[in-house]
Design brief:
Length: 477
């Protein structure tokens, strides 16, 4: 362990109540980005961070993002930028987080007021934004403060980028990052994002991969208007019947994608990769618990994790225009739109996948000899991301985990996507690390969101320790 860590950890423990108080103040600002009437609170939260950074001597600025697209009466909340240290002999780490939160109302099933941090006897700190992402964002500020109060040299230059629209599509952020890549972010040597979770509750992880997603609409139409089945049933081609046939041709009940050309693009599993899964702290019971049932496809954890992380999947989501209310209505819908998406992995190519989907749908529709019309289109596409876990950014983080938690971290991927990860990688060309603070039981986005006191305080140690090891790791790529 590097010699400065001992006094740093001690200082963090000594300041624990103060750091929790800072989180309490942040949670009290209901910075819900999805609700127009809460926009002033989102802005207020941005200003709160700006002020806290200033107090710590961080060079900070608020960058406006202009009006919200399609809602010209609303200003987008500002990006909060910060720069701490500017020493050419130190590495520079760029960190990202977000200060907006998901909506929350007590009536949704919260046991406590969502915008009042409330700590129970198990040390669980309930409050909207506690774990996603105010706790981790404040973690960086707290790490700075603990260094100052312990009289320790800060080991790196830190660049900070905190946004206020993450829970609402990060509007305006991509362009901003691209634009600043060669300006404000120019000196960054690597990127660290703390905005995801441990796989379980015991063991920290470092995340090096995310799946992408491509979302499709499959539209079948025919009749000029909705029809009555008593009059037209048996005499007209029905769009819903065609759609059900095509949708059932996309994926098998065991999850196998039946679209030709997709499996062929998946990167093969290497022996080295296989070895990574064995030790990961995850059991089939963890899966069953989070499923709320025993309906898993595979009997073992390795294949289950691969199914979530490194193989593509296709899910059917719904049918727009179909009758879905309770009761019996004898309608024949004139136009129905099936919704499905594909979670993508290396080396699937966005355009290539779109082409395979189109060819498959057209071929299946042709088999039906239907006089209806059918078209499919991709609504939005986000690419997968995989980083090298051998990069010094990751080896430093692994050492930091060991210094705080006395275990080696799990190297994980995630099945979902965090689009900003790929944006930072593409814009800066630097290695990006996902270094989570919270655990799998934190219920981000859900009712009773919480962050454990343990995860918060040890997480502050982790972030600071990571920066110390970053300063020491040899340059390997
Ligand atoms: Zn988040």
């Amino acid at each position: 362990m590097t010699p400065q860590l001992e006094p740093y950890f001690k200082q963090v423990d000594g300041l624990a109540d103060h750091f929790i108080e800072r989180l309490r103040q942040a949670v009290a600002i209901p910075s819900v980005s999805a609700e127009d009437e809460r926009r002033p609170d989102v802005v207020k939260m941005g200003h709160f961070l700006h002020e806290e950074l200033k107090k710590l001597g961080v060079e900070t600025e608020l960058r406006p993002l202009g009006k919200q697209p399609h809602k010209e009466h609303l200003d987008l909340p500002p990006i909060v930028l910060g720069r701490y240290g500017n020493d050419k002999n130190k590495r520079t780490i760029l960190v990202y987080g977000h200060y907006d939160v998901q909506p929350a109302n007590k009536e949704d099933g919260w046991n406590t007021e969502p915008f009042e941090l409330s700590i129970d006897d198990k040390g669980r700190m309930f409050g909207r934004g506690s774990t996603d992402d105010k706790g981790p964002v404040l973690g960086w500020l707290n790490a700075i403060e603990a260094h100052q109060k312990a009289g320790l040299d800060f080991p790196v230059n830190l660049l900070m980028c905190f946004e206020g629209m993450e829970e609402h599509g990060s509007e305006g952020l991509d362009d901003f990052i691209m634009e600043e890549a060669q300006k404000y972010f120019k000196t960054a040597d690597a990127v660290c994002i703390s905005d995801n979770y441990w796989l379980g509750t015991e063991k920290p992880c470092l995340t090096y991969g995310l799946r992408g997603v491509q979302y499709y609409s499959l539209e079948v139409s025919g009749p000029g208007q909705d029809l009555h089945s008593g009059v037209f049933g048996g005499t007209a081609h029905e769009p819903m019947t065609d759609l059900a046939k095509i949708m059932s041709s996309l994926v098998d009940v065991d999850g196998t994608i039946k679209i030709k050309g997709i499996a062929e693009q998946v990167a093969p599993v290497t022996d080295e990769e296989k070895g990574l899964y064995k030790d990961i702290a995850f059991t089939m019971d963890n899966l069953y618990e989070s499923l709320g049932s025993k309906t898993g496809i595979f009997p073992d954890k390795e294949r289950t994790l691969m199914g979530r992380w490194r193989y593509p999947s296709l899910s059917l989501h719904g049918i727009e225009g179909a009758y879905s209310a309770p009761g019996a209505k004898t309608v024949i819908p004139a136009k129905v739109i099936g919704k499905f998406s594909i979670r993508t992995v290396p080396n699937l190519d966005i355009d290539e996948v779109n082409k395979c989907v189109e060819e498959h749908v057209n071929a299946e529709f042709a088999k039906l000899n239907s006089k209806n019309t059918c078209k499919v289109f991709c609504q939005h596409a986000g690419k997968w991301w995989v980083a090298s876990p051998k990069h010094w950014n990751f080896t430093a983080a692994a050492k930091a985990v060991e210094s705080v938690f006395k275990v080696k971290p799990d190297l994980t991927r995630e099945g979902g996507s965090i689009p900003v990860t790929l944006t930072f990688e593409q814009a800066t060309g630097k290695n990006v690390l996902l270094l989570p603070m919270g655990s799998s039981t934190d219920a981000a986005h859900s009712t009773n969101e919480k962050l454990d006191r343990y995860n918060y305080i040890e997480g502050i140690k982790l972030l600071g320790s990571y920066l110390h090891y970053v300063a020491e790791e040899p340059m390997n790529n």
